[in-house]
Protein backbone atom coordinates (compact mmCIF):
# COMPACT_ATOMS: atom_id res chain seq x y z
CA UNK A 1 0.00 0.00 0.00
CA UNK A 2 1.30 3.49 -0.85
CA UNK A 3 2.03 5.96 1.92
CA UNK A 4 -0.76 8.28 3.08
CA UNK A 5 -0.50 11.73 1.49
CA UNK A 6 -1.66 15.18 2.58
CA UNK A 7 -1.80 18.21 0.31
CA UNK A 8 -1.26 21.39 2.32
CA UNK A 9 -1.69 24.82 0.72
CA UNK A 10 0.21 27.81 2.04
CA UNK A 11 2.84 25.33 3.24
CA UNK A 12 5.94 27.52 2.86
CA UNK A 13 5.64 29.07 6.31
CA UNK A 14 3.44 29.71 9.34
CA UNK A 15 0.58 27.37 10.20
CA UNK A 16 0.91 25.48 6.90
CA UNK A 17 4.57 24.66 7.50
CA UNK A 18 3.88 23.52 11.08
CA UNK A 19 1.05 21.34 9.75
CA UNK A 20 3.39 19.87 7.13
CA UNK A 21 5.90 18.99 9.86
CA UNK A 22 3.30 17.30 12.04
CA UNK A 23 2.01 15.20 9.12
CA UNK A 24 5.62 14.19 8.39
CA UNK A 25 6.18 13.23 12.05
CA UNK A 26 3.13 10.98 11.80
CA UNK A 27 4.52 9.23 8.73
CA UNK A 28 2.51 10.95 6.00
CA UNK A 29 3.91 12.31 2.77
CA UNK A 30 3.08 15.93 2.06
CA UNK A 31 2.53 17.81 -1.19
CA UNK A 32 3.52 21.33 -0.14
CA UNK A 33 1.76 24.02 -2.19
CA UNK A 34 2.59 27.73 -2.11
CA UNK A 35 2.82 30.59 -4.58
CA UNK A 36 5.98 31.93 -2.89
CA UNK A 37 8.38 29.73 -4.86
CA UNK A 38 11.67 30.72 -3.12
CA UNK A 39 10.22 30.24 0.38
CA UNK A 40 8.58 26.98 -0.65
CA UNK A 41 11.73 25.54 -2.19
CA UNK A 42 13.74 26.55 0.87
CA UNK A 43 11.27 24.86 3.23
CA UNK A 44 11.03 21.72 1.09
CA UNK A 45 14.81 21.39 0.71
CA UNK A 46 15.28 20.50 4.37
CA UNK A 47 12.44 17.95 4.53
CA UNK A 48 12.10 14.36 3.30
CA UNK A 49 8.91 12.86 1.86
CA UNK A 50 7.65 16.17 0.46
CA UNK A 51 6.96 17.51 -3.01
CA UNK A 52 7.12 21.28 -3.54
CA UNK A 53 4.37 22.54 -5.85
CA UNK A 54 4.75 26.25 -6.60
CA UNK A 55 1.19 27.17 -7.57
CA UNK A 56 -1.36 29.90 -6.89
CA UNK A 57 -4.57 28.48 -5.38
CA UNK A 58 -6.68 31.32 -6.79
CA UNK A 59 -5.95 30.32 -10.40
CA UNK A 60 -8.12 27.48 -11.81
CA UNK A 61 -5.50 26.26 -14.31
CA UNK A 62 -2.77 26.24 -11.68
CA UNK A 63 -5.01 24.40 -9.23
CA UNK A 64 -5.76 21.73 -11.85
CA UNK A 65 -2.02 21.35 -12.43
CA UNK A 66 -1.45 21.24 -8.66
CA UNK A 67 -3.83 18.29 -8.23
CA UNK A 68 -2.24 16.46 -11.21
CA UNK A 69 1.28 17.00 -9.85
CA UNK A 70 0.37 15.82 -6.36
CA UNK A 71 -1.40 12.73 -7.67
CA UNK A 72 1.39 11.97 -10.15
CA UNK A 73 3.86 12.01 -7.26
CA UNK A 74 1.95 10.29 -4.46
CA UNK A 75 -0.67 8.30 -6.38
CA UNK A 76 -3.28 9.34 -3.80
CA UNK A 77 -4.55 12.24 -1.71
CA UNK A 78 -5.87 11.34 1.75
CA UNK A 79 -6.22 14.85 3.16
CA UNK A 80 -6.47 18.33 1.72
CA UNK A 81 -5.67 21.24 4.04
CA UNK A 82 -6.91 24.52 2.57
CA UNK A 83 -4.65 26.81 4.57
CA UNK A 84 -3.32 29.41 2.07
CA UNK A 85 -4.65 32.81 3.06
CA UNK A 86 -4.10 36.54 2.91
CA UNK A 87 -5.23 39.27 5.31
CA UNK A 88 -6.11 42.90 4.71
CA UNK A 89 -7.30 45.07 7.60
CA UNK A 90 -8.80 48.52 7.01
CA UNK A 91 -11.96 50.60 7.13
CA UNK A 92 -14.76 49.66 4.72
CA UNK A 93 -14.39 52.94 2.81
CA UNK A 94 -10.73 52.15 2.12
CA UNK A 95 -11.38 48.62 0.92
CA UNK A 96 -11.31 49.13 -2.85
CA UNK A 97 -12.68 46.46 -5.15
CA UNK A 98 -9.20 45.24 -6.08
CA UNK A 99 -8.42 44.58 -2.40
CA UNK A 100 -11.78 42.86 -1.90
CA UNK A 101 -11.18 40.61 -4.92
CA UNK A 102 -7.59 39.82 -3.88
CA UNK A 103 -8.77 38.60 -0.48
CA UNK A 104 -11.71 36.64 -1.91
CA UNK A 105 -9.55 35.13 -4.67
CA UNK A 106 -7.19 33.37 -2.26
CA UNK A 107 -9.30 32.92 0.86
CA UNK A 108 -12.55 31.81 -0.78
CA UNK A 109 -12.01 30.97 -4.48
CA UNK A 110 -8.85 29.07 -3.52
CA UNK A 111 -10.71 26.84 -1.06
CA UNK A 112 -13.46 26.16 -3.59
CA UNK A 113 -11.03 25.42 -6.44
CA UNK A 114 -8.67 23.17 -4.46
CA UNK A 115 -11.54 21.25 -2.89
CA UNK A 116 -13.17 20.68 -6.26
CA UNK A 117 -9.90 19.66 -7.91
CA UNK A 118 -9.05 17.15 -5.16
CA UNK A 119 -12.55 15.66 -4.74
CA UNK A 120 -12.08 12.80 -7.26
CA UNK A 121 -8.88 11.70 -5.48
CA UNK A 122 -10.49 12.10 -2.05
CA UNK A 123 -13.40 9.89 -3.14
CA UNK A 124 -10.88 7.12 -3.87
CA UNK A 125 -9.34 7.32 -0.38
CA UNK A 126 -12.50 8.39 1.54
CA UNK A 127 -10.30 11.23 2.63
CA UNK A 128 -10.77 14.49 4.49
CA UNK A 129 -10.72 18.22 3.85
CA UNK A 130 -9.72 20.69 6.57
CA UNK A 131 -10.36 24.35 5.79
CA UNK A 132 -8.68 27.12 7.74
CA UNK A 133 -11.10 29.93 8.52
CA UNK A 134 -10.62 32.38 11.43
CA UNK A 135 -12.33 33.75 14.50
CA UNK A 136 -12.88 36.75 12.20
CA UNK A 137 -15.29 34.51 10.27
CA UNK A 138 -17.24 33.73 13.45
CA UNK A 139 -17.57 37.29 14.78
CA UNK A 140 -17.97 40.61 13.03
CA UNK A 141 -15.64 43.43 13.98
CA UNK A 142 -14.19 46.61 12.57
CA UNK A 143 -11.45 46.65 9.91
CA UNK A 144 -12.03 43.16 8.54
CA UNK A 145 -14.77 43.55 5.93
CA UNK A 146 -13.07 41.45 3.25
CA UNK A 147 -11.09 39.10 5.49
CA UNK A 148 -13.96 38.37 7.89
CA UNK A 149 -16.47 37.91 5.08
CA UNK A 150 -14.15 35.55 3.20
CA UNK A 151 -13.63 33.44 6.33
CA UNK A 152 -17.36 33.33 7.16
CA UNK A 153 -17.91 32.07 3.61
CA UNK A 154 -15.27 29.37 4.16
CA UNK A 155 -17.27 28.17 7.16
CA UNK A 156 -20.41 27.86 5.02
CA UNK A 157 -18.41 26.23 2.20
CA UNK A 158 -17.24 23.65 4.75
CA UNK A 159 -20.83 22.79 5.62
CA UNK A 160 -21.91 22.64 1.95
CA UNK A 161 -19.08 20.27 1.10
CA UNK A 162 -19.68 18.14 4.20
CA UNK A 163 -23.36 17.78 3.34
CA UNK A 164 -22.68 16.80 -0.25
CA UNK A 165 -19.56 14.65 0.03
CA UNK A 166 -20.54 12.67 3.12
CA UNK A 167 -22.09 9.92 1.00
CA UNK A 168 -18.64 9.36 -0.54
CA UNK A 169 -17.06 8.96 2.89
CA UNK A 170 -15.32 12.34 2.63
CA UNK A 171 -15.26 14.39 5.84
CA UNK A 172 -15.01 18.17 5.63
CA UNK A 173 -14.23 20.29 8.69
CA UNK A 174 -12.97 23.72 9.48
CA UNK A 175 -10.57 25.22 12.02
CA UNK A 176 -11.08 28.80 13.17
CA UNK A 177 -7.75 29.94 14.61
CA UNK A 178 -7.34 32.73 17.08
CA UNK A 179 -4.28 34.95 16.69
CA UNK A 180 -0.91 33.31 15.92
CA UNK A 181 2.32 35.29 15.46
CA UNK A 182 2.85 34.53 11.78
CA UNK A 183 3.92 36.87 9.01
CA UNK A 184 0.26 37.27 7.98
CA UNK A 185 -0.89 38.31 11.46
CA UNK A 186 2.07 40.49 12.34
CA UNK A 187 1.53 42.54 9.16
CA UNK A 188 -1.92 43.64 10.37
CA UNK A 189 -1.84 43.38 14.19
CA UNK A 190 -0.94 46.77 15.65
CA UNK A 191 0.37 47.00 19.24
CA UNK A 192 -3.18 47.99 20.27
CA UNK A 193 -4.68 44.91 18.63
CA UNK A 194 -2.06 42.65 20.24
CA UNK A 195 -2.79 44.11 23.68
CA UNK A 196 -6.54 43.80 23.17
CA UNK A 197 -6.25 40.15 22.10
CA UNK A 198 -4.26 39.31 25.22
CA UNK A 199 -6.99 40.83 27.37
CA UNK A 200 -9.95 39.34 25.45
CA UNK A 201 -8.64 35.77 25.22
CA UNK A 202 -9.28 33.67 28.37
CA UNK A 203 -5.85 32.01 28.05
CA UNK A 204 -4.38 35.55 27.74
CA UNK A 205 -1.99 34.73 24.90
CA UNK A 206 -1.56 34.10 21.19
CA UNK A 207 -1.58 30.51 19.95
CA UNK A 208 1.41 28.83 18.32
CA UNK A 209 1.64 27.35 14.84
CA UNK A 210 2.13 23.94 16.42
CA UNK A 211 -1.05 24.23 18.51
CA UNK A 212 -3.00 24.89 15.33
CA UNK A 213 -1.27 22.07 13.47
CA UNK A 214 -2.33 19.61 16.19
CA UNK A 215 -6.00 20.48 15.64
CA UNK A 216 -5.71 20.42 11.84
CA UNK A 217 -3.98 17.03 11.74
CA UNK A 218 -6.50 15.61 14.22
CA UNK A 219 -9.40 16.62 11.97
CA UNK A 220 -7.59 15.26 8.89
CA UNK A 221 -6.88 11.87 10.43
CA UNK A 222 -8.66 8.70 11.52
CA UNK A 223 -9.20 9.87 15.13
CA UNK A 224 -11.87 12.24 13.77
CA UNK A 225 -13.59 9.56 11.65
CA UNK A 226 -17.11 10.49 12.84
CA UNK A 227 -16.61 14.28 12.72
CA UNK A 228 -17.74 16.26 9.69
CA UNK A 229 -19.28 19.65 8.94
CA UNK A 230 -17.79 21.14 12.12
CA UNK A 231 -16.00 24.36 12.97
CA UNK A 232 -13.41 23.99 15.71
CA UNK A 233 -12.29 27.29 17.18
CA UNK A 234 -8.68 26.93 18.36
CA UNK A 235 -8.58 30.35 19.92
CA UNK A 236 -7.68 30.21 23.61
CA UNK A 237 -11.38 30.39 24.47
CA UNK A 238 -12.01 33.68 22.72
CA UNK A 239 -15.18 32.65 20.89
CA UNK A 240 -16.76 31.25 24.04
CA UNK A 241 -16.70 34.60 25.82
CA UNK A 242 -18.87 36.75 23.58
CA UNK A 243 -16.36 39.60 23.87
CA UNK A 244 -15.97 41.60 20.67
CA UNK A 245 -12.89 41.31 18.47
CA UNK A 246 -10.22 43.92 19.13
P1 LIG B 1 1.41 33.07 6.58
O1 LIG B 1 1.39 34.35 5.84
O2 LIG B 1 2.53 32.78 7.52
O3 LIG B 1 1.31 31.85 5.55
C1 LIG B 1 0.39 31.86 4.48
C2 LIG B 1 1.02 31.18 3.29
O4 LIG B 1 0.04 31.14 2.23
C3 LIG B 1 2.23 31.96 2.73
O5 LIG B 1 3.34 31.10 2.57
C4 LIG B 1 1.75 32.49 1.39
O6 LIG B 1 2.76 32.59 0.38
C5 LIG B 1 0.68 31.44 1.01
N1 LIG B 1 -0.30 31.95 0.05
C6 LIG B 1 -1.02 33.10 0.14
N2 LIG B 1 -1.81 33.23 -0.93
C7 LIG B 1 -1.59 32.14 -1.71
C8 LIG B 1 -2.11 31.71 -2.96
N3 LIG B 1 -3.03 32.43 -3.62
N4 LIG B 1 -1.68 30.53 -3.46
C9 LIG B 1 -0.75 29.78 -2.81
N5 LIG B 1 -0.22 30.16 -1.64
C10 LIG B 1 -0.63 31.32 -1.09
O7 LIG B 1 0.01 33.02 7.33
P2 LIG B 1 -0.61 32.06 8.47
O8 LIG B 1 -0.94 32.92 9.62
O9 LIG B 1 0.18 30.83 8.66
O10 LIG B 1 -2.00 31.73 7.77
C11 LIG B 1 -2.45 30.44 7.45
C12 LIG B 1 -3.98 30.45 7.48
O11 LIG B 1 -4.43 30.69 8.82
C13 LIG B 1 -4.61 31.55 6.62
O12 LIG B 1 -5.74 31.03 5.94
C14 LIG B 1 -5.02 32.59 7.64
O13 LIG B 1 -6.10 33.39 7.19
C15 LIG B 1 -5.41 31.70 8.80
N6 LIG B 1 -5.44 32.38 10.09
C16 LIG B 1 -4.30 32.90 10.63
C17 LIG B 1 -4.38 33.55 11.84
C18 LIG B 1 -3.16 34.17 12.49
O14 LIG B 1 -3.30 34.91 13.47
N7 LIG B 1 -1.95 33.90 11.99
C19 LIG B 1 -5.60 33.68 12.52
C20 LIG B 1 -6.73 33.15 11.94
C21 LIG B 1 -6.65 32.50 10.73
TrEMBL record:
<dbReference type="Pfam" id="PF13561">
    <property type="entry name" value="adh_short_C2"/>
</dbReference>
<protein>
    <submittedName>
        <fullName>3-oxoacyl-ACP reductase</fullName>
    </submittedName>
</protein>
<dbReference type="InterPro" id="IPR036291">
    <property type="entry name" value="NAD(P)-bd_dom_sf"/>
</dbReference>
<dbReference type="GO" id="GO:0016616">
    <property type="term" value="F:oxidoreductase activity, acting on the CH-OH group of donors, NAD or NADP as acceptor"/>
</dbReference>
<dbReference type="InterPro" id="IPR002347">
    <property type="entry name" value="SDR_fam"/>
</dbReference>
<comment type="similarity">
    <text>Belongs to the short-chain dehydrogenases/reductases (SDR) family.</text>
</comment>
<dbReference type="GO" id="GO:0030497">
    <property type="term" value="P:fatty acid elongation"/>
</dbReference>
<dbReference type="InterPro" id="IPR057326">
    <property type="entry name" value="KR_dom"/>
</dbReference>
<dbReference type="InterPro" id="IPR020904">
    <property type="entry name" value="Sc_DH/Rdtase_CS"/>
</dbReference>
<feature type="domain" description="Ketoreductase">
    <location>
        <begin position="4"/>
        <end position="183"/>
    </location>
</feature>
Amino acid sequence: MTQTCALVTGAARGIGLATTDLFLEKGWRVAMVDRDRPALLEAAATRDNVLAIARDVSNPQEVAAMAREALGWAGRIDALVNNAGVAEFGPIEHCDFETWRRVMATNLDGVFLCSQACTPALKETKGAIVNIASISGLRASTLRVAYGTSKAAVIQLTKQYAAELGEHGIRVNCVAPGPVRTKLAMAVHTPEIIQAYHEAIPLNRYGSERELAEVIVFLAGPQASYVTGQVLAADGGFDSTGVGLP
